[in-house]
Amino acid sequence: MKPIHLALMTGIALGVLGAGPASAQSVLNIGLQDDPDTLDPATNWSFVGRHVLQSLCDKLVDVDAQGQIAPMLATSWDWSDDSKVLTLHLREGVTFHDGEPFNAEAVKYNLERALTMETSRRKAEISSIDSVEAVDEHTVKINLKEPSVPLLAALSDRAGMMISPKAGEELGEDFTSSPVCSGPYKFVEHIAQDRIVLEKFPDYYNADQYHFDRLVYRGIPDSNVRLLNLRSGQMDLIERLAATDVASVKSDANLAVAPVVGLGYYGITFDIGGEGANADFAKQQALREAFSLAIDREAINQVVFEGQFTTGNQPFPPSSYYYDESNPVPARDVEAARAKMQEAGLDEVELELLVPTDAERQQVAQIIQAMVGEIGIKMEIKPTELMTLLDVARQGKFQAHLVGWSGRVDPDLNITPMLACGAAGNDAHYCSEELDSKLAEARAVANPEARKAKYKEAVEILLRDLPIVYLYHSQWIFAHNAKLQGFKPYPDGIIRLAGVTRAE
Q1: Residue 177 in contact with residue 36, Cβ under 8 Å?
Q2: pTM of the full structure
Q3: Per CATH, the architecture of 265-473 is what?
Q4: Range 61-165: architecture per CATH
Q5: Phi, psi torsion values for 405, nearest 5 degrees
Q6: Percent of the chain predicted with pLDDT > 90
Q7: Which of 61, 228, 300, 493 is the most buried (most CB within 10 A)?
């Protein structure tokens, strides 16, 4: 990555770097924190991949600026009285980038692919689906095994992204190398650890709302380098501006800041059932509790994020309707932590923590390292490139890692994909039939007050077992050139470009 960043900072034009004939086009250059893993909605697991896929692959439904479900490829929907049948009414006149029509059969293909494809990471998110029927060309009926209110929210993310069935069949698991969807931009190239280039799809149904001919995404893990590239004009828009840089960006008339409170969390995940698990931490809940009690979450917020984030101890932020106020964020308690170490029968224990290479998470890890060191936990920090870290974690070949979850509008989707028994994203390899049962009950309830009671029970299980020690909830902080107009941040943290223009 260093040669690329150096080239950007010294002013080499993106066109020279291979992004295409940029001089003849309107190009938007976007700096991401990492390079995406895949561009197949069924297999993608990285947050940054969602930025690219948002412009590449339209979804059945989307999320609006208030965090509510909004129409996209499905213009409306109906639930049956027993919440076991979801009927989608589809947008007409939509085509995929290869000219194939978008219709009910395409929806059926995509949902079945996500459920049956061996490498799919969407299975747990839509596992409630029993069958999919193409009622007519623009009507789809989704039959559920059991009531599942969160399904619609799942379809506002990658599970609801539609790919061309023709391309899906022809390319198979190589689909990521040349993805074909129906979004406002189509795929041009992906050079790993360098750039992803998309170009405007002229036949998009809402094309007049997209004002750039090309999008060029670059993964730049160092937030300082991302900001330097924005200041130099090599980037037009960057994600995850460091909280410590907000004040300086606000004081720069050439730049603008766009923050929004997020839906997700950051935490330490322990490998409990994988082959790489630390036996002491895997077997002894008291040890994980000692680890949690030793951490001063507010100190992390103040030192690393200048108080702009929110401390947390649950899958949802304290501002969430579903947050369990009877179990508030604990204060640091060194004596209680040491007592838990004694309960575990240990004076000292070693732990290896995988941490992505960005500066903020490295700093968080260093602070935690010092805090838990006071109670006898000797934590080794192992900086690991994010995609490598995720791959190792999926295989269960780690002891603990510091990774975030971007969050979803439905509370179930902040727990089930990561902690349900056998879920593709269950890095902890944790399995609690008790938790799964509570989550199933919550998914069947439509009334928010009744659902909240169910999630309280689920949270109590998580706070007892601690497969994840939740730490804080971030703001999504974007920064962009002041000439960029119309950009709005959304609570899911995903870059959306409809209506965004650049003043000349």
Answers
A1: no
A2: 0.76
A3: Roll (3.10)
A4: Alpha-Beta Complex (3.90)
A5: -125, 130
A6: 85
A7: 493
